[in-house]
Amino acid sequence: MKSKKWYIIGLVSLGVILFGIILVIRQMNLSNMDGKYHYYYNDSQTYSDEVSLIIHGNDVSIINDDEKTSVKLDKKNKIISGWINAPYTYQDGVLNFGDEQYAEENSKAYKNSK
Fold first, then answer.
1. What pLDDT does residue 35 have?
2. DSSP SS3 for 48
3. Which 3 state secondary structure label does DSSP give 27?
4. Is there a contact between 108 and 98 (Cβ–Cβ < 8 Å)?
5. What is the C-alpha separation between 63 and 52, in angstroms, rounded?
6. Are residues 23 and 45 in the same domain?
7. Of 2, 23, 51, 68, which has the fewest Cβ atoms less than 10 A away?
8. Superkingdom, according to UniProt (predicted)?
9. Does pLDDT of 64 surpass 60?
């Protein structure tokens, strides 16, 4: 009887640990913003064909007319800073800050606009 009790406790504990690991991995994937992004044109409601922004970790390169400008992401406070200091939002591969919107190449928003 005692061994059965410990067996059940062990299985429940293992299940809780595995569930926790899955949640951590899922959160890590959700917060990963790395990738190439395309600028959104409000007037034509389309995205640019050329890459306009690249994110790698907390480093952001904004590409404009063959020039690169570097800024930083503060993911904890959701602020983009450098030559611009602005709050940002990020959801489903779409990044918004200031009056600008960018979509990641592999996001649904970008693919649906093509």
1. 93
2. coil
3. helix
4. no
5. 5
6. no
7. 2
8. Bacteria
9. yes
Greatest Cα-to-Cα distance within the chain, rounded to the nearest angstrom = 74
Residue 86 has which token pair?
A: 């602005």
Mean pLDDT of 81-108: 90
Domain ranges, residue 20: 1-30
The token duo for 87 is 């709050």
Co-location of 53 and 24 in the same domain: no
The structural domain count of the chain equals 2
Tell me, letter by letter, the H, E, C secondary structure of the chain.
Answer: CHHHHHHHHHHHHHHHHHHHHHHHHHHHHHCCCCEEEEEEECCCCEECCCCCEEEECCEEEEEECCEEEEEEEECCCCEEECCCCEEEEEECCEEEECCEEEEECCCHHHHHHC
- Does this model's pTM top 0.85? My answer is no
Q: What is the CA radius of gyration of the chain?
A: 21
Q: How far is CA 99 from CA 36, 41, 75, 95, 103, in A?
A: 19, 11, 19, 11, 14
**Is 19 in the same domain as 42?**
no
Same domain, 47 and 77: yes
Extract the tokens encoding 6: 């410990």
